[in-house]
Structure formats: C-alpha cells, structure tokens
C-alpha cells in the first residue's frame, strides 16, 4: 500500500459454469470522484480493479474496473513489458454483459462525503472472454490481482493484493495464482 489511508479491502472470488462472481468490501471515509458511466475513466475516482490473466505465458490479461456507483470498465490489456494498451469489448451486450451492483454503507448524495465504505457485487460471464480464452474448469490456474485506488484528502492511496506488484498494477509477472479448484 502506498498513500496516507490504510483502509481495509476485503474481496472474494467464486466461479461457476457460467462465470466469475466477485465481491469487494471497501472501507472508506469519503467517496471521491465523479459519477462516471460505464467505459469512463473510472481509475480517476475511487475504484477497485480486478486483473485476470488466463495464460501466464503472455502479456495479455483482463482489467475490469468497478466504481462505488456501479459503473464498469472492462478492458482486454496487451502489455509488451514497455507499455500497455487497453481494448474495449465488441458487442458488449446480452450474455456478454457484466452485472455490477454497488452500494454505499451509508446513504450518499454528493461526490465527496463522509461514509463508512462501499461494496461491489459483480458477475463476469465467460461469454465476455470468448475468442480470448476458454472458461476455466476444475484445476485450472489463472493469475490475477486486485487493486484499489482511493483519492481521499490529503492524498491518493494505492493498494495491490499481489504484494510483489506494489502500486504498479500492470506488473503481470507478479500476479498471484488463482486456482479454480
């Protein structure tokens, strides 16, 4: 973690035959940033980011961002070790659509407000990954990371579950194993 706020972040990943379920509970004293639509630059506001790398032999992985207001930014990232580039999904609709529900731990009606935190509950369908990877089965191992950016004053705090990544969220070489077991 780097920054002035040592907020807790609790998360859980589960999987089924149809997709991945993701839950994040983020302690926070103030939700900071703009309420942006899906595909907005969510990382410019409070956000959690889930990184999923189906094949550790490549610099290709998914980065999916979630805001406290339920917006999502699903990206396919191509990382050549020098720079990384995000690609948006085509025909992001129907069975390919991520379902995200966000809630605040206290009622909120402004952009920077005292609160207890926020929660996101997400379903990521495997149909979104079609053409890039096959759905995992029992015993499959992907690699991944969960990251969080919080913009409370006096400064930004960045946190990464994969401790060797530090605050460089795109350091896919140091992502942790995700065992579908």
Highlighted features:
7-stranded antiparallel sheet, 4-stranded antiparallel sheet, 13 strands, 181 residues, mainly beta, Immunoglobulin-like
Secondary structure topology:
Blueprint: E1 9-15, E2 19-27, E3 30-31, E4 47-53, E5 60-66, E6 72-79, E7 84-87, E8 99-104, E9 113-114, E10 117-125, E11 140-150, E12 157-160, E13 176-180
Antiparallel strand pairs: 1-2, 2-10, 3-9, 4-5, 4-11, 5-6, 6-7, 8-10, 11-12, 11-13
What would the principal axes of the Cα set say about the shape? Answer: globular
> Gyration radius, to the nearest Å?
16 Å
Low-confidence parts: 107-113
Question: Total helix count?
Answer: 0
Number of domains: 1
Overall mean pLDDT score?
90
Give the termini distance in whole angstroms: 29 Å
Compressed to H and E, one letter per element, the order equals EEEEEEEEEEEEE
**Proportion of beta-strand residues:** 35-45%
Q: State the CATH class.
A: Mainly Beta
Class inferred from helices and paired strands: mainly beta
Assembly level: single chain
Q: Could you tell me the CATH topology label.
A: Immunoglobulin-like
Q: How would you sum up this structure in a few lines?
A:
The protein is mostly beta strands and 181 residues long. The chain contains no helices and 13 strands.
């Amino acid at each position: 973690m780097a920054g002035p706020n040592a907020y807790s972040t609790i998360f859980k990943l589960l999987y089924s035959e149809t997709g991945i379920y993701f839950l994040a509970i983020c302690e926070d004293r103030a939700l900071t940033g703009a309420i942006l639509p899906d595909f907005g630059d969510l990382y410019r506001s409070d956000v959690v980011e889930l990184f999923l790398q189906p094949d550790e032999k490549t610099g290709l992985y998914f980065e999916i961002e979630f805001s406290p207001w339920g917006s999502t930014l699903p990206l396919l990232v191509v990382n050549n070790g020098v720079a990384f580039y995000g690609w948006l999904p085509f025909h992001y609709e129907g069975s390919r659509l991520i379902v995200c529900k966000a809630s605040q731990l206290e009622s909120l009606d402004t952009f920077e407000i005292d609160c207890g935190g926020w929660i996101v509950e997400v379903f990521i369908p495997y149909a979104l990954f079609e053409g890039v990877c096959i759905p995992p089965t029992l015993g499959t191992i992907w690699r991944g990371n969960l990251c969080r950016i919080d913009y409370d004053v006096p400064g930004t705090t960045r946190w990464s579950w994969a401790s060797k990544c530090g605050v460089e969220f795109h350091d896919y070489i140091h992502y942790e194993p995700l065992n579908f077991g």
